[in-house]
Amino acid sequence: MMARRRLLDIxxxxxxxxxxxxxxxxxxxxxxxxxxxxxxTVRVRLGPLSQFSATRPVAVSVSYQKRDGWxxxxxxxxxxxxxxxxxxxxxxxxxCTHASCAITWDGQKNGxxxxxxxxxxxxxxxxxxxxxxxxxxxxxxxxxxxxxxxxLPA
Amino acid sequence: MSRLLTWLERxxxxxSAWSRFWLQxxxxxxxxxxxxxxxxxxxxxxxxxxGAVLMFYYSPTxxxxxxxxxxxxxxxxxxxxxxxxxxxxxxLIVPLMVVHLLRVFLWGAYKKPRxxxxxxxxxxxxxxxxxxxxxxxxxxxxKAYWGTAVRLQIAESLPAIGRAVASFLRGGPELGSLTLMRxxxxxxxxxxxxxxxxxxxHVRQVxxxxxxxxxxxxxxxxxxPKTQRLHPEHTARISLLALLLTMSLLILSTRYPAPLEPRAxxxxxxxxxxxxxxxxxxxxxxxxxxxxxxxxxxxLIPTAFILLLVVVPFLERSPERVISKRIPAxxxxxxxxxxxxxxxxxxxxxxxxxxxxxxxxxxxxxIFVQLKCYTxxxxxxxxxxxxxxxxxxGKRDSEKVRAILENPGSFNAHTLMPQYRLPPExxxxxxxxxxxxxxxxxxxxxxxxxPEKPPSHFEPxxxxxxxxxxxxxxxxxxTCHRPFFCQACHxxxxxxxxxxxxxxxxxxxxxxxxxxxxxxxxxxxxxxxHQKMRHDTAWITDHGKALAQWGHLTRWSExxxxxxxxxxxxxxxxxxxxxxxxxxxxxxxxxxRRHGELLAVKEKEGNPTRQDCTTCHSSQFCTNCHQExxxxxSHKASDFVWKAPNNxxxxxxxxxxxxxxLKKGEGSCQTCHQSSFxxxxxxxxxxxxxxxxxxxxxxxxxxRALCQRxxxxxxxNCQSCHTKTRPRSHILDYRKQHSRDPTIASGSxxxxxxxxxxxxxxxxxxxxxxxxxxxxxxxxSQLGLxxxxxxxxxxxQICVTCHQPSFCRRCHLPD
Lengths: 154, 815
Known about the structure:
B: 41 helices
């Protein structure tokens, strides 16, 4: 009798575990997994390569749909396209890494200048002067069919 | 762990309470029929767990509710499974509760002292129905919106309190954000709290009073031996059924995921909401009453039924539990159950039959979805608002459907619908599906688009307003749409900016705002036209060839190259060359090639009709073709423009064009050239105007070099006049006086008399060269005069012709 009860006890507990697992595990994963998801990117066309062949970095305003969960909004931002060598470009954020001010290209200083705290970045985004400690954020670029594309965080 | 449990037990007594609960003895006879309460509790637990997860991702606003449900279905890991488990648990909990209630009723388990357990159970059932009604609205799809609208309408029909109840639930004048938030709070906060309290009290009461022993009088319960415990004997039964229930839920959730109809569209009046299966009996009951008495069926009878259930333990007070001794109660209960079952069956029969598609129609349905026909057309609701709902309008003719698909413009010139040129088998399937669509057809599941449409796209006025969004930020469209997306509609209906003058003026816009063009057009779009057609000289020469190659091809938004020409040019401008009311002579098949030759023949016949060309054609007309590459045959002669000198005078004779001009008359050149054309080279108007004859002496005197370009010194034209009629200057004794004529110095004599005419008379170059005063002495030797008298002889032979003897003495002393 006791053995039967023991067996039933084990079976009941296993069943409870199975039922809990079937319903609980997906629920747990549904909450946990999105936190570890790789950030999505969006591919944006910046323009024909000829447009960026100048020695001076070119500011390009791009507009794209940005997803915030289930909310999708039009998002606008500016990036700088630096011509490094034929077929080699760098697309840099226009936001200073020190205090998030918008930078501009200063031809006299030959670098990106941040007017808030006099930060200066090189054409390739490296810190040249001022308080910033990190280089400008760089975005991956692709060249296809004579056009320059950039992967921006969606 | 044991120390923790000991501490917990010492502090709360929960550990021993937990053990007491599971080890409570159960009377003999408690078996499989007593498991439905536990299964209901399992369903409720699943609903709580899955509902809690859904709450993490759900947004209770009309703008975002649908998008958040889509997000759950397609982007949350296991999101679709969790929503489906929630959906199916909510549907299974109702029959489980009904079975549990029936079991308790038939077993007489509600009798004193278990009346409260029964009442709590009935309230539990009411709350579950409330859960269903409020949860129904939350996905905010078509079914949710219209189902809720109908239910609120039913609530509003209640006498006295109806309007107040409906207004409270609605939260405002119409279904919207206030309604959704109220339903959300009721569904996710108020009802769960209430139901949790009810469940806790219900279960506690069961534990407190114990499970009623079956089929024994209430006052004989104590005599029934308790041969089993809740755990593990009874929990083993429950576990087995719980496993089966779990498997059923899993199978149902994976095979039949929770539906999500198109987003709620308040303006879509074609949608037909259908009641859920568990309220079909109520729906049928309502149909039994006239409209003004509907509240009896929709409110009074259900309320009375609930109240009846609540008071059952107080109405039936006999301690008997055996069915045969409870005939009035059992018969009443079975009658009510039978009525509900009959009504439910009637409702099931009244439900529209499931759409039965043939394999061909099913294939056509797939094509329908692939082509995104739902973007414009609904099927008894759903779909876009642009085209007519295909569920309406009765049976269709397959040939007409095919014709509309292939060329919608032939039925409605203003339609936006693009032409579909499908392979025959696909067209046949699509036509079969569309023809088969009837009033009971449903919109097929619409696959989600990625990324999902932003809320703006669901605004009722989006179709008319989207152009403002494009103008504001043309790039934003490109994030999701490729240019051909715009052209699906705009092939037929151009944007308002693309009016009749657009082609003429589009360049400025394209140059200033290229991104605007790129929002609808590929990069190759401009090149399609401009690589072949730039309105330069080469284009004018070659346009016939180019148009012959691609002019009639349908391109550029269903336009042909020729139709593009007409955007700027009127047909008359083409007809000038190509068509129109041309003379008979122009109707020859090869007139265009032979017109020069034909014209020459006519002229030979003595009928110089070249001027006839200018009757219809402007002076620019010929130059359209006859520029560098396509000159008339006559113009191709090597000496047509200029002829090399053929005599010592340097006179080259008449060039080809001069001969043509002189031969064919004044209008000849002007057929193709403007009158100013000749002046470009000749410096004077040509052919010479009529007044030239009287003025030519003056012209000739001032512009002798010009005359020499065409006229030689011995030009017979001059001779022809001047041998008969002397110039007016040549009065009778002009020979003696011509040396005083001031024009002589300019060489004007040579115009008529030739370059050697003076020499012929004077015997020496005339007029005297500039250094003649120093060299005139050499003349004598040149003339072979020798000796002392040579000067006198020279003077007598030559100088006296013009000079008096005293003229020499101005310098020379007498011999």
